[in-house]
């Protein structure tokens, strides 16, 4: 297929690393994998849900399973030592990638959702007092929003939602007004998965710190798509998922400042996270292992390391620029339709565009796009309260990554136009 | 099956021009249901014949995706003249046959919502199930 490299990425070469992009669709979807009725090229624009996996990542994980598969931290035999080194060094690699001070600040979780829950169950249940409050935003993913909502309910604390303005930007005056001296935590999404809005997370963190509150930034849509430095943001906690950044499913990251993590009690207890166990009690391992109970996602950590290598090889600045270029192009092309409503701002947007076609339910639209090979997300995107604010039951979201092209967005536009005509 | 196949003329026609749309003045029973995956809602009103068995008239109101609304519209045409037993005998295949298209697995809940609402409404009317505010489509 024709490719564009207006931003300097060699998209054609990148696409060769992703075999799935050559897949055709259209056949029987009740049986996983290709079949003889597949005849439609795939235009994958659902990267905010999950990204695809390059050969290099799959090969790294295959090598792990074929060459040094073993449990970590316990065996003295050679394979276990090799696996342990790889697993531990994966933490170093992540730390370096996001600007953490070291592996002590990098806890591997299942995903971003688990990272939020980890903080809620450790910090929240021990530190959040009745009468205190957590300030978050209307544009949070359920991973964050439901976690804070339920924690506050449990603790007799209040959860406050900073509002968005008409452009879908965070109303910083409202956020500032909602943070007070009873605020214990300020939590905001770095890049909204529905609006695409990029939030001023340094400023949000500064506001939190002015009131001696902690900050927790949801970086699930940010780390895959732009350079992120948690030290520069000065966030106390920061979370993201491996599978949205070319890595495997089953691994996510909680960054936390070392001093803070040191003070927190463990989340899950059991194997691997203990130093010494007696019938009467137990003591905990050093960071980050204290928060990684049981056999961890070892192959996934190896895969995540390979994913970071791949991303850095391409360059996060170039990826960010490519995403911005595609998002602006999609925004402008969708704007050509009078009956398409786009959510979120045109400027200061990450690589995704959420929209609705008037008179056509997002799921109907998505079904028609699928028939054209265009894979998008349709529904509430795990931001139901935000959809209530937008006053729509659902929306359709096209989200881009380093392997996407303008030509794929043209396919999206053609398919949207087909749907318009069908439903006219 | 594929998206455009799902949106053949009949579905689009019933979505754009729903039949028997509106609240009935004096239904024998009414029931409401929703399909949370699409946010579809359907209310079905049913009038029975004097034998209290035969469905005489069906109307609906609702909001949601084309599949759910077209299925409801088609059902209001399909049911009159049938007995409540026939309604209870309707399965997913009957609905896809009625729609005239294959429905992709992720959208089946949309297609069967109206049928399920009508079935639950009939069961409530006959006291075969306990009070149920809303029907929620599940797998």
TrEMBL record, chain A:
MF-aspect GO terms: cysteine desulfurase activity; lyase activity; pyridoxal phosphate binding
The UniProt record lists the keyword Lyase: yes
GO biological process, alphabetically ordered: cysteine metabolic process
Domain Aminotransferase class V: 44-412
Catalysed reaction equations from the record: (sulfur carrier)-H + L-cysteine = (sulfur carrier)-SH + L-alanine
Cofactor: pyridoxal 5'-phosphate
E.C. number: 2.8.1.7
Keywords: Lyase, Pyridoxal phosphate, Transferase
Record-linked NCBIfam families: sufS
UniProt-recorded name of the protein: cysteine desulfurase
Family under the similarity heading: Belongs to the class-V pyridoxal-phosphate-dependent aminotransferase family. Csd subfamily.
PANTHER family from the UniProt entry: CYSTEINE DESULFURASE, CYSTEINE DESULFURASE 1, CHLOROPLASTIC
UniProtKB/TrEMBL annotation, chain B:
Domain spans labelled NIF system FeS cluster assembly NifU N-terminal: 6-128
Molecular-function annotations in GO: iron ion binding; iron-sulfur cluster binding
GO process annotations (BP): iron-sulfur cluster assembly
Matches recorded under CDD domains: IscU_like
Transmembrane segments: none
Highest taxon of the lineage: Archaea
Protein's name in the database: Nitrogen fixation protein NifU
